[in-house]
């Protein structure tokens, strides 16, 4: 791809060696870019998929390589692949960008930031393990031998997944959560409370409403002690800090708009600034058909690079066509925890009205519908509302239909019909005249 016009695009540097970075390189080539692609990573490994780190902690002896997982071989796509060369500064110039690395500088016409996130480790928690990289998983697996005692701080996605697989592997597991229900921040209290019984059923001790004040290493051993605000002290052969992750963007704060959480501000297709784009965990996309969508969705790393690259090529070179504000996929997170399969679609909010589709605890699964209660209305005398998100639990047959239903935005649904598990959810969609 070449052009004589000013601002033509001949080189792109992708910062991030994970799924989002790999998919960006793939999208550049798929959409016709034949200029120079440089990809910078930080782990020294070929790109791999992160969800199996927790879900398949005891089943894998190698990372989930993206060549086999999604058919993307970055070694064949990038002209310059540097898997062990993290970026530490970005300069944006009128005619290009400069990324400073440990070995020098990389100049390009544009940059796509796919830097991902890092686990949160509060000050004083240095004795705790984390699970974010393949090396983290290998260390954790080596220590979680049968009979070992694991104290997981946090009952979120990672804490619940590791608790489940560690218990099955013969470990004694305690999960400590500061909030009153599991996954309260992600699902809300009304939905999260239905997950609490899973812990006891799986043989895991769950301690809710217990804030941690310190994690101290044990004298003369590899274990640690967890001090709670109540005064209780829990000992673990392994203590896991599983209290969330934040975008790995500290090195960009003086260069780009970054919020208090560390998320880069982008538009609906990942534009951040002239010549600067972002994908995956590190960016919040503003103004999408789903509203503001923060990073952290696995689907964002998998699918968002397609629309971001389309915008980049449209802005800076003879691209593959006009960009679209519709991403073509709903934000999506999946989890396997404590013997249950979960899929979360859309952008649910703590302020949404929640309606259950089926009954929690039954063998045929259930779902929670997150409805925009502030804009409820009626149609033909029946209540209708925008469907902002859906949590599906152990109902595999509904996952594909939901992905299609939410692909183009937030549908208006007949609330009573949507709550009936005997009816396909698509039949509840209301089209107003």
Word description of this protein:
This protein has 433 residues and is α/β, with parallel strands linked by helices.
N- to C-terminal separation?
46 Å
- Our estimate of the beta-strand percent is 25-35%
Given the structure, what is the number of helices?
A: 12
What average pLDDT do the residues reach?
91
Largest sheet: 7 strands, antiparallel
Radius of gyration: 23 Å
Structural class: alpha/beta
For the secondary structure, the number of strands is 30
Poorly predicted tracts of residues: 1-6
> Helical amount among residues, as a percent range?
10-25%
- What gross morphology would you assign? globular
Keywords:
433 residues; alpha/beta; seven-stranded antiparallel sheet; six-stranded mixed sheet; 12 helices; 30 strands; 32% strand; disordered N terminus
Entry summary:
By secondary structure, the chain is of the alpha/beta class. The chain contains twelve helices and 30 strands.
Topology, please?
Layout: E1 11-15, H1 19-30, E2 36-40, E3 48-49, H2 52-55, E4 64-65, H3 66-69, H4 74-77, E5 80-82, E6 87-93, E7 96-101, E8 104-108, E9 110-113, E10 117-119, H5 134-143, E11 149-153, H6 157-168, E12 172-177, H7 184-187, H8 189-192, H9 197-201, E13 205-208, E14 212-217, E15 224-228, E16 233-236, E17 238-241, E18 245-247, E19 264-266, E20 271-273, E21 276-278, E22 283-288, E23 291-293, H10 298-316, E24 332-337, E25 340-346, E26 353-357, E27 366-371, E28 377-379, E29 382-393, H11 399-405, E30 412-414, H12 415-418
Parallel strand pairs: 1-2, 1-9, 2-5, 9-21, 11-12, 11-17, 12-13, 19-22
Antiparallel strand pairs: 3-4, 6-7, 7-8, 10-18, 14-15, 15-16, 20-21, 22-23, 24-25, 25-29, 26-27, 27-29, 28-29, 29-30
Helix pairs in contact: 1-10
